[in-house]
Amino acid sequence: MPRSTGDQLLECVVNVSEGRDSSVISAIASAGGDQVLDVHSDPDHHRSVITLGGAATEQAAREVARRTVDLIDFSHHSGVHPRIGVLDVVPFVPLGPRGSAPVDGDLAPALRARDDFANWAASDLGLPCFLYGPERELPEVRRRAFVDLAPDRGPKSPHPTAGACAVGARFPLVAYNLWLSTADREVAASIARQLRGDSVRALGLVVGDATQVSCNLLRPMQFGPAECYDAVERLSAAYAVEVTRAELVGLVPAGVFVSTPPERRGQLDLDPDRTIEARLEAALE
After folding, report:
1. Are strands 243-249 and 200-207 parallel, antiparallel or unpaired?
2. Domain containing residue 36
3. Residues 208/213/216/219 CA torsion (nearest 10 deg)
4. Measured CA angle at 24 (ends 129, 283), to 5 deg
5. Is residue 1 included in any domain, yes or no?
């Protein structure tokens, strides 16, 4: 069983490779019980992001993981988002007092939870686990897994139906998608390449009949949704392309929401109910 974190609360943002079958998504999410704060599914990405938080986050993550491995067969999966397994990414995030979402601080509780989860998943689920965090970043795991990087825990080859899992420790980030008025993947990919930096990771993806710049905002208090939207809008102008809409994936730290000008929140797909703190407070009540 996971060790108690005492007064330390954790968030866990489980990314599973199923975004189309609502019955499967519901069954997986329900395994997280009262710790489930949010579920975001995307049929084109063929991916669901299940946000867990609270006193029993680690146990909830294990129950979600077990149900995911039981219900999804990776060999039948297709989607525009990169993935290495059915339980693709499991990052643990330290939360501050009363569930606040600090952008820096002590990562040690999340690192312990990460290592405990990887040991468990390797032993109980037979799942190869690659660690990310201070020692390496998630894009490196995606690029090198089973090529020149062996799993840190578990079998040395992929699970026959579940693939592998990237288990991480990080501070809160914002997952954010911006849709473009073009179906040209090369335009979206070029914009994503120009956008990438220390504060943002970005991919240019074809999504249905359109394209999307799919982002992780790593330092959202310095480069948040507004800054990302404006940067993509500037880069898009060179291709005579417009940003057609924004999409927040999962939840956002309250500090990011509060710092966003009120008149822009609708445009940026931000809402006071969709903060980590608001959902956690409701769950704890």
Report:
1. unpaired
2. 9-169
3. -150
4. 80
5. no
Token code pair at residue 25? 């998504």
Identify residue 13 by its one-letter amino acid code: V
Same domain, 97 and 225: no
Q: Give 159-180 pLDDT, tens digit per residue.
A: 999 999 999 999 999 999 999 9
Strands, DSSP E only, in the chain?
9-16, 36-42, 47-54, 87-95, 129-132, 165-169, 174-180, 200-207, 210-217, 243-249
d(CA 22, CA 62): 21
- What's the pTM? 0.93
Please determine, for residue 7, whether its predicted confidence score (pLDDT) is greater than 70: no
Quick one: pLDDT at residue 2?
A: 45
Mean pLDDT of 109-135: 97
CATH number of domain containing 158: 3.30.990.10
- Find out whether 69 and 77 touch, Cβ atoms under 8 Å: no
Are residues 213 and 124 part of one domain? Answer: no
Angle subtended at Cα 54 by Cα 52 and Cα 58, rounded to the nearest 5 degrees: 65
Look at residue 97 and give its three-state secondary structure: helix
Half-sphere exposure of 35 (CA within 13 A, CB side): 24
Q: What is the pLDDT of residues 18-73, one digit of tens each?
A: 999 999 999 999 999 999 999 999 998 999 999 999 999 999 999 999 999 999 99
